[in-house]
Amino acid sequence: MDYMDEKVKNDLSSRILMALVLMTFCIILLRESAGFMDPKAKYFSRHELGVTHVLVTGGAGYIGSHAALRLLKDGHRVTIVDNLSRGNMGAIKILQDLFPELGRLQFIHADLGNAKAVNRIFRENAFNAVMHFAAVAYVGESTVEPLRYYHNITSNTLLILEAMARHNVNTLIYSSTCATYGEPEKMPITEETPQFPINPYGKAKKMAEDIIIDFSKTTSMTVMILRYFNVIGSDPEGRLGEAPRAELHEHGWISGACFDAGRGIIPGLKIRGTDYKTPDGTCIRDYIDVSDLVDAHVKALAHAQLGKLGIYNVGTGQGKSVKEFVEACKRAIGKDINVEYLSRRPGDYAEVYSYPSKIRRELNWTAQHTNLQISLQIAWRWQKSHVNGYGPPTIVS
Ligand SMILES: *[C@@H]1O[C@H](CO)[C@@H](O)[C@H](O)[C@H]1NC(C)=O
Ligand SMILES: *[C@@H]1O[C@H](CO)[C@@H](O)[C@H](O)[C@H]1NC(C)=O
Ligand SMILES: *[C@@H]1O[C@H](CO)[C@@H](O)[C@H](O)[C@H]1NC(C)=O
Question: GO molecular-function annotation terms (predicted)?
């Protein structure tokens, strides 16, 4: 009798049920829509317990890419921001191939001088810490184009600091340099050695440091400033290397000259100044292997405590003369190199080396790769197999 009625009732309740299911589904869909459209985004836009998400600026560059590799290897989540004006897309590709899993590595092609872009990056991502590597870094170039240096070092650092403050990112590891000390009267250089930089590069870095330090005093931000000495070497497993733009070779560092000589691009090495008051008459520098340098960053990150300001020299503490460097270079590349002895270059000073006891005491860091020849050999292996560096820069978006 009521059979029909019963059926209508059943129909109605199943329809209501269906509607409820659909509604729930829609709500879930809406809530996940950001992640739904780009499955990667949700990993980077949210904090995750036990995962440290590090923004690596300049992560396509020489030191930045090595740091990103180490952070990824240690299980951190990494966002690289680089505008590829000095960095290499090839280095990013290698890192992406090594860590293809969702939520491990993200590359954002953006210009750190663009405040809008920087703010957007901080708004859309949940960073725990920033390692700020991005910079132009050639003393010679800085004397010719000082504005480029003040703009891209000092002003860009200010922008990043402002974005960090606005978005509550509280840990900054800053790449600085022994060039901020200028020509100290006393060696070795400690963190208390007065800073009187003598070129726009050193001055721009010193200004950026001052801005960071002053700001850190007014906030609970953790700041670790690492002042690098002369960085050499590359990834011992040969995945990454140093590949400066061709037009920058003339400004390059001494190891670049060694490899160029090894490849026959330049006729030989020039030693400028053999009458310094040093044991063999040539300048003395402190060469730090990039693996050790990156390890110092990881230790600085691990020791970051809220409100702490740490300033550390990152060097070996062992000065090596230019002559020793040239000998190590010859052995590393397995060739004799023509060496030309010239008079002193204006602005060079006899000795620069660090006293790395503060960083050992406070961060338990010491340089492990202090054999010049081995560091150069590793780098030379990469150079030999990458005659064109990472190849022509291509932009993938
Ligand atoms: C990188 O940034 C600079 C400004 O700092 C800009 O002039 C340049 O065009 C940018 N390069 C690329 C490849 O976007
Ligand atoms: C640095 O700043 C200058 C402006 O002074 C700009 O033209 C240049 O493209 C910037 N980028 C680099 C990598 O030098
Ligand atoms: C310091 O580092 C060494 C070697 O990396 C390690 O064996 C040691 O346990 C560390 N000490 C502390 C106090 O963390």
Answer: oxidoreductase activity, acting on NAD(P)H, oxygen as acceptor; UDP-glucose 4-epimerase activity
